[in-house]
Design a protein that fits this description.
By secondary structure, the chain is mostly loops. Helix content is about 15%, strand content about 5%. It has helices at about 5-10, 40-45, 75, 105-110, 140-145, 175, 205-210, 240-245, 275, 305-310, 340-345, and strands at about 365-370, 375-380, 405. A hairpin with a 4-residue loop joins strand 1 (about 365-370) and strand 2 (about 375-380).
Length: about 400
């Protein structure tokens, strides 16, 4: 096989010349001096700038001559204490990386199967307070902010209205500037009315009808058609190309297709650069890293039964016994008993008046007035008792059992 390709045949090597670089002209410094002046320095000259006085007026609404002490409450009360720094409560750092990779994960190494572990509480112990200095109840507000008498509010007196002495002219800009000028009356543009003698009928002639008259149209000359006479000769059905462009010595066209090469008996070399240089390597498949199974597989075959199929077996239906009472025949006209639990147990009782509603309750003697302003009364039958109580509504029937307290 010829080792000549189209690229090697057409693109022949040529002589490569070195690249010529352009040498710049030598720099010659100028002998003139630069003035170093800009448009800003020439046009914008500096001028003296003075401080502007404030425009805000003085607040004289509540004048106060006392000087304010600028000591905040935070600096006076919250004083830093001299205490040692406490260490952080955190578990010890005992992790050490493995020196050799054994294809195990961090979860398998750190979380093995363990039993119950007694955990240690990380809660800091209860330590008494380090500062024994009692907190002062005096604040900056109690010491400095003493109530002062409120001064009388400053009221600005408005000036009295003084009317102007010059009389009002009652003239406006329109009255003074735009004065009316004498002019001619406006002329009407209405056409004059038709007189009585112009009742002639309207003419039907127009300018178009007068000037644009119809022209006489000449008669068109028509020629009689010639009668068709069919030819007597016979038609040969030959075209111009067939009759004039004849090729008596013509040969069939030869094909421009290249000649098909004859196969030789020698064997074709099928070796290429890729097959020689990039040969297939002998590689072995790497097995995946799988975790060690920790659960034992059962040796017995699977019965393919679900929990529903195993336990929920259909049973024959059981006839349930009805608890509905037996229907009895309709009763006769038996009268309804009118007695209820309320009519038997809750009998009407007499409503007595509460002793606390009297100005001086009967059966009680005034004892004293306590700190809350209640008047304490002691029953007459009770003597020498030091225990006092209040009489409720339920104790109104037995006024001799407890003492009575009436609000003043």
């Amino acid at each position: 096989m010829e080792g000549l390709t189209t690229a090697r045949r057409d693109f022949a090597p040529h002589k490569v010349l070195p690249v010529k670089l352009h040498q710049p002209d030598r720099y010659v410094p100028s002998e003139e001096n630069m003035d170093l002046l800009t448009t800003y320095k020439q046009d914008f000259n500096p001028y003296h700038v003075g401080r502007v006085d404030p425009i805000k007026p003085r607040d004289s609404k509540y004048p106060c001559a006392d000087k304010m002490e600028c000591l905040p409450t935070y600096k006076a009360d919250y004083i830093p204490w001299n205490q040692p720094r406490q260490e952080l409560v955190r578990p010890p750092h005992n992790y050490r990386p493995a020196p050799k990779f054994d294809s195990r994960t961090t979860h398998q190494d750190d979380y093995p199967m363990k039993g119950l572990v007694n955990t240690r509480s990380c809660k800091p112990p209860a330590v008494p307070k380090l500062c024994n200095i009692p907190l002062e109840d005096l604040t900056n507000y109690k010491m400095s902010y003493v109530p002062h008498p409120v001064e009388k509010r400053f009221v600005h007196e408005a000036e009295k209205f003084r009317p102007c002495d010059i009389p009002f002219e009652s003239l406006t800009t329109h009255k003074e500037s735009y004065r009316g000028l004498v002019g001619e009356p406006a002329k009407t543009l209405k056409p004059p009315a038709r007189g009585p003698g112009l009742d002639m009928p309207f003419s039907n002639t127009t300018e178009f009808r007068d000037k644009y008259q119809a022209w006489p149209t000449p008669q068109v000359f028509s020629r009689a058609p010639v009668t068709y006479a069919p030819p007597e000769e016979k038609m040969d059905f030959l075209t111009t190309v067939q009759s004039h462009y004849t090729c008596p010595k013509g040969t069939p066209a030869q094909s421009c297709r290249p000649v098909r090469p004859i196969r030789k008996s020698s064997r074709f070399e099928s070796s290429t650069t890729t097959k020689e240089d990039y040969k297939q390597w002998a590689s072995t498949r790497t097995e995946p890293v799988k975790p060690v199974p920790q659960l034992g597989r059962p040796t017995e075959p699977l019965d393919c039964l679900t929990t529903t199929q195993a336990y929920y077996v259909p049973h024959p239906p059981v006839s349930t016994k009805s608890c509905k009472p037996i229907w009895s025949a309709p009763r006769g006209n038996i009268p309804l008993e009118g007695q209820t639990t309320y009519t038997i147990s809750f009998t009407p009782k007499e409503m007595g008046r509460c002793p606390a509603s009297y100005p001086e309750p009967p059966g009680y003697v005034f004892e004293e007035v306590d700190a809350l302003g209640h008047k304490i009364y002691r029953p007459i039958s009770q003597t020498g008792s030091g225990q006092y109580g209040h009489l409720s509504v339920g104790d109104a029937e037995n006024p001799n059992q407890r003492e009575l307290a009436v609000s003043a």
